[in-house]
Records
---
Amino acid sequence: MAERADIDELIKSVLRGDQRALARAATLIEDQDQSAARLLTHIRAHAGRGLILGITGAPGAGKSTLCDRMISLLRAQGKTVGVLAIDPSSPVTGGAILGDRIRMQQHHADPGVFIRSMATRGIPGGIARATADLATLLDASGRDVVIIETVGIGQTEVEIARLAQVTILVLVPGSGDDVQAMKAGVLEVADILVINKADLPGTDKIERELHSAADARPVLRTVASEGQGIAEVLEAAQSCKPSVHLPAESPARIDHLGIAVRSLEEALKFYQAQLGLQVSSREMVAQEKVNVAMLPVGDPHIELLEPSEPDSVIAKFIAKRGEGLHHIALKVPDLTNLVERLRAAGARILNEPQAGAGGHLYVFVHPASAGGVLLELIQA
């Protein structure tokens, strides 16, 4: 586990776009290091500026060549690029076979390009477990465009549409007979349809098939190996307003469960020794008079709260009710507007937005307004 001061310095370097810092941060995230939670918490606020492109399609369609040519054109436009190339897992080591990185080797020395190969490690859907977090990492580092190239498993490869703002499906002449089958899968979630290797026989046929199924979405021709049609694909991607093909995620999600304990050290004997959970951060929140330990459980956390003063809210809670669940915390996209709406609806807000553990802004909603549970709302 990296030390906290070390992680803070790493965060600063990532936000400057430093290549080595990006590589180290990516490794921490992929390895699910306990310091990765703190890293991601601090960089998420800086993401959302880059264009996230998903490139999907069957093996042999020329996705990697298309990506390579897109990188070259984007760099010629002065844009910085991050690439996540999802490769099949090695049956021996479980790691990525690294085929995509080899094909993009010409960009290796370019500081404006960061390429990371990722192993699927058995995860279905054409992406790896940490793909979303690494896309956030590259976006937060200031990359203008982040390209996610999926492993290429065929028509069921729809998870990319949940991560990318624009999804590009790459097909080749001769796959027209598969278009009908794709209607129940990847064809439905693609924003742009690209016929690569369009110099081969059968291009007209598959183009007709795609136009009949495209619902006014762009159908473009490329010969990626010759650099033909790449500019048109990028122009379509940069101007595309992505359709909503998959169910939208809830605007709020569970961030953590707050548990009041008399002693952090005693509680951690159970959570660490018995459950195997690891502490991602510890700190004292002065205004709440509480010591805090955060333990990731997947994306959400368990927040252990120990009173630092006998007159703190947590101390009074324990004195009245004993140790136990103190509150539920939800992360929301726009805390200020939500607080205004809740107040207008008559909800009891217990404090003005202020910084808490980890530096996030939060408010508490009285249990009388939240079905009997103290609810913490956190700015995402």
---
Amino acid sequence: MSASIISALAALAGSVIGGLTSVLASLLAQRTQARVQWIAQEKIRRQELYREFMEEASKCYIDALQHDKGDIPALVNVYTKIARMRVISSPKVIETAEQIGR
């Protein structure tokens, strides 16, 4: 093989390696960014659920202080929120929410 062919093949190999490296870095960056966005969305979703739960539980508590009978539809809403928490929350959060529900 002549030196010009070896030089051309080396340049071609370098270009291919550089291009693949660039594509790989881009894919990793996009994957990381997508994961960060997903985590942020999940956090917002949990915070919204916790806020709704606290509002419902507070309403039930105030109602219980004012009346002798429980407000069944409001209690159903509280237990619905607890059920949703079971899917996305830790066991400690669920345990605490159940204590509040009782």
---
Amino acid sequence: MGTVYLLHFVRPLGDLSNPRGQARHYLGYADDLEARLEAHRKGNGSLIMRAVKEAGISWELVRTWKGGRSLERQLKRQHNSPRFCPICNNPARRGGKGEL
């Protein structure tokens, strides 16, 4: 069994004038989480993480679940990663704002 994980980007990636044209999270799966995170740090492993690296956007691992690719797909189908993110759901870490 592997690990499903959620990365939170420090700032959005994409069209900053369009809230629907931005990404703030990456939800993925890994058999070896540390190796996968190292690949992301180098800009490898996925197109979005390559774009994050090229844009100079930092990120942090904010949540993990024990599970396989079926759990990853189940979470991705919800299209709502911010709901799972402890940073987006903690007003103190967002600067005290009560909205996402």
---
Amino acid sequence: MVLHLAVALTAYVFLMWILGFVPSTFLFVLVAVAAWRRYSWWVSTVYAAGVTLLLQLTFRVALGMPLPSGLLGLF
């Protein structure tokens, strides 16, 4: 599980600058939750979407921080 999360975190850092904050955060949380192997894929997907939305609202809206939009300009 530790190796799984280390690879996921490394991929997250690289994907952040390519895809942007929202898609890369969603994928990272989805992979991190999957590492636990406790939940089904649909529960993991809903959880990842909720965490991504919460982080987006916290940093971009409430704190007014600019977040990476990536090379593709997504979100």
